[in-house]
Amino acid sequence: MPALLTGLLIGSIQDSWSGGSSQDRSNSELTRFTIYFVYLFLGEIVSCYIANIGFIRTGIILSSRIRERYLAALLSQNIAFFDNIGAGEISTHITADADLIRDGISEKVSVAVQCSASFIAAFIIGFMRDWRLTLILASSIVCITLVFAAAGIMLTKYRQQWLGETAASGTIVEEVFSSIRTIVGLNAQSELVARYDSCLAKAERFANNARLISGVLLGAVFAVIYLSIGLGFWMGSRFLVAGTSSYVDILTIILATVTGIACLGGIVPPLQVFTIATAAGSRLYSTIDRRPSGTASRPSEGKLDSVLGYIKLQNVRHIYPSRPDMVVLNNLSLDIEPGKTTAIVGPSGSGKSTIIEILERFYDPVAGDILLDGHKLSELSPNWLRQQISLVQQSPTLFATTIFDNIRYGLVGTPHENASKEDIENIVYDATRIANAHDFITQLPDGYDTLVGEAGVLLSGGQKQRIAIARALISDPRILLLDEATSALDSTSESIVQAAIEKASQGRTTIVVAHRLSTVKSADKIIVLSGGQLVEQGTHHFFQEKNGVYSRLAKPQAVDLSEKESLDDENYLEVSIQNAKSVSEEI
């Protein structure tokens, strides 16, 4: 429209200069066109404001929904998905990548729509004035389209590589600050800084490549614009001499087409943002669209009316996706009696913790069946199954909130989740008494309202472990899994936690994975694994009469029981290591 008005205005001025119209009429025409330009100016301000506000709001809403869907998709994935992705990378995706998508949807879309509309309107005006000259100038569109296509492919490639290195650097930062004490203790700051700088250098290289392509693209667009202006004047002069076009039409067409082509050039900055948003979106939607394995097809499927806790493994074979060449469980078959305590022991790498993980359905075995009360775990809803099982690990995770809230989280998904405050308090207190945690909690200045800090850093190892046991017991699970629950504790804390475990195990199926054989002496059954296979099973007294794998595993710990007081720490550690090596060689 500005091009059309400009052409008509110049035509009116030309008529005035050539004597085709009076001065008063020329002044009147000039005033009229000036008012039109003012109207256009005001209209563009209002329309641009409304468009920008609308698209910005849309971008914020859509990016928020994408974040929600991405987080929901992450939480529905099986554990194998997280073996090859770091916490820093996830954090980068959910924050930086979502922001890039928001930028690509917001005001940049408004600019792209305005430029596209101006481009179309400009050529419509041109074809209405003189289709021949407009068609000749339209040939420049082909050139710009080819340039855009080639540049878009290369920009998307470099943007994806840039985002990948940015996510990798975020993972390094996450690792650094989540284990800052270990890093400082190892004096590894310089090495990690070098790794971080390396990621940033790679990201900068990819970003520079993208900037180079963007610069070439912008230069090519302006080159086409100036060539189009020259071509328009050259062909327009020939049409003017031939009398087939008027001066006003030629000038209007040139202004309109140049404006249209310039609007295509105005799409270049939004195009850069679109390519970044596309690359970021592809990364997010690859996770959002990923269907997790091991989920029930309908929420009503895969539930049992009651659970006894009888567990049976039949020819189970398992290989971790991240280690496809290593067989962790090799045709393992065993029975775990309901209501009893079963201990699983063996050398490192024998598959003890893997049994815990497949019972929790963090992973599904590659072969064989796992039965709960005669029903295959693969036919049961994972969410329902995990409501029947509680897990206490070697290094329990506590959230940066109060002790009470950390324990109360164990009620999520249970019938008591929405109980009254008084009922929840009573349930929490009962669980802490069983876990031998109530006394030390009440002795704290703030009691159950004590903040535990990031990952429970304000509590000792034994205190964290007892809180984790209380959280596991609060839902009254039929099956209790203990994975090295006391291995990281000193002897005093171990005895307290062990007493809590024995109280917690009463009346439920309990599976204890342990290296310290002193913690499994009282187990109803002890299963010994080696190389992912069952090699022995029985009770502690039964194994004392045999010179098998269990007895050889007990040798280093016999030193622990009888000679610990006569050895200093260094000699004790040396003897333990030597005995452990001999056990591994014999096995």
UniProtKB/TrEMBL annotation:
Residues 311-556 form the ABC transporter domain. The chain crosses the membrane at residues 34-56, 109-128, 134-155, 212-235, 247-268. The keyword DNA damage does not apply. Keywords: ATP-binding, Membrane, Nucleotide-binding, Repeat, Transmembrane, Transmembrane helix, Transport. The keyword Transmembrane helix applies. Residues 1-269 form the ABC transmembrane type-1 domain. Gene3D superfamilies: ABC transporter type 1, transmembrane domain, P-loop containing nucleotide triphosphate hydrolases. GO terms for cellular component: mitochondrial inner membrane. It is a multi-pass membrane protein. It is found in: Membrane. GO terms for molecular function: ABC-type oligopeptide transporter activity; ATP binding; ATP hydrolysis activity. Belongs to the ABC transporter superfamily. ABCB family. Multidrug resistance exporter (TC 3.A.1.201) subfamily. This is ABC transporter. It comes from Penicillium polonicum.
